Each structure stands twice: as structure tokens, then as C-alpha cells.
Amino acid sequence: MDRSSIVEYYNKSRNAYKDAWGLEKYMQLNLGLWYKNTKNLAQAFENLNAEVAKRANAEEGDTLLDAGCGVGGTSIYMAKNHGFEAHGITLVPQQAADAHENAVLEKVSHLTDFQVMDYCNTSFEDEQFDVIVGIESICHAPSKKRFLTEAYRLLKPGGRLVLAENLQAKEKLTPTEYDQLYTYGFNGCKINSLDTENQYLQNLKKIGFREYECEDMTRHVIPSVRRLRRFYYPAWLYNQYRALIGKPFGPTELANTRMCYYLYTGIKNGLWSYGLIRAVK
């Protein structure tokens, strides 16, 4: 998936994220984590950020790289709650602008910086960061190993890498399973490949990380995936209405709508999972 396709997706789906996912209020573009006492999406987002901070061994003054930062939600959380000096990077200029505005509103602009940059090929110096996080963003990389290699270069000795990631749950897929997972599912958000847990762990080992683990959190994202399925039905009807009045949506919007249906199918059929990956340089 090329860079321009990813930028187009996030630009065209910006309003959908505002309406369905509270983007302006919560500043998050992820599934969150739902526990027994979680009452709403805002709490699910808080849970995920807290889990990431815990695995990062967050300490005040740490330097953070938020790889694929979206509109800055996690960077801002880390700056506000843990005193991180947070640097967020994204391919999408509009997201970088939104992130800067959000940081000003949340009064942490002095602790944050947002730039348009490819997280697989950054301009940062070697060993610059104490912590690198990626929140459902590394799945966009054509080569996840290439990102992991860049993250290793950027981390200080003892630095921590924490990823909240969608994972392919099966080593091999049948043609039908491939269509469910990618053609009708993740391709809707411009993702055409996911690594398995084993691929991540093996690559972390090969690159040189001295500690690496992945905790399966799949059951804790299912409520959000169900929420997407529920949004599919009114979105599909709206798409039909637009077509009837001669103002149809384009392929990006239609694929995004279809994805809302098939992500639930895929996770229930055991085709993808959700993991929290932690590694130490």
C-alpha cells in the first residue's frame, strides 16, 4: 500500500472518525481496551494508553517517539500524565496539524512536537529515544521488520518499544480467509498485510532486542469491533441513498464501510488477533 493511499484514506475518513469514534473529543484512532468495568469508549481509550504507559515503564522526562501518531492522543496522554517529551510522526499533514492544535488545547504544546515523517525512514539521530510506541499504526507498514529495525536504531540502550497491534492469527490463510481478512476487511483502511505474533517475535530477536514478548488482548477489543459492525448498517443505507441521488461515495469510502462488517467476521473466525508487544533494546 503506497503512502498516498494511506494519506487519502485518513483524509477521506476524517469525518467518519469524528462521527463514529469521537475523534475531536477523544483524539484517538484505535480500538481501546474493554475490561469488565469499562462503561464507554472513552474509558477503553484510557485503558489502552494506561497499559502502554505501564509497559513503557514511563518515567518523567523520558523522550518518546509516537510512530504513526494520528491526531496526537497518545503523545498528549503521555505528556500530561507522565511528563514525557513526546515527538509524534505521521504521514498525514492534516493529522500533524490537528495534533499540534490538540496539544495547544490540552496545554502540553511545550512537551510535544508533531511532524510529517515516515516511521520506517526517519531523520532522527541514533539512540535518541527512551520509548517508542505504535498504536495500531505499524500495520500500515509494507515491511514491519523495516520499522522494527528503524526503532532499534532510534532507541537508547535499555529503551523500550511498545506496540498495540492487529496481528494475523493464522500462519497460512485459505483464499476465502484471505478475502475475509484483507479483501473485504483490512484493505478498507489501506492495510494489505499483518504479521503474526511469531513473525514479530522472531524479527525482534533477529534485530537484536534482548527482551521481547506479546500479550494477547483480543478479547478486550471485541466490544469495539462489534461497535464497528453496528455502524456498518446505517452507513450502508447512507451509501445507498447517496447513490440514488447521484452523489455516490468513492471506492475508499465504500471499502471503509465494508470493512466495518468484515472485521468482526474475521476476529470471530480466528483470522486476526490483537496484541500488546513489548521489547527492550
UniProtKB/TrEMBL annotation:
One of its GO terms (molecular function) is S-adenosylmethionine-dependent methyltransferase activity. Residues 65-163 form the Methyltransferase type domain. InterPro entries: Erg6_SMT_methyltransf (IPR050447), Methyltransf_11 (IPR013216), SAM-dependent_MTases_sf (IPR029063). The keyword Protease does not apply. SUPFAM superfamilies: S-adenosyl-L-methionine-dependent methyltransferases. Pfam families: Methyltransf_11. It comes from the Bacteria. One of its GO terms (biological process) is methylation. Keywords: Methyltransferase, Transferase. PANTHER family: GERANYL DIPHOSPHATE 2-C-METHYLTRANSFERASE, ZGC:194242. This is Methyltransferase domain-containing protein. It comes from Membranihabitans marinus.
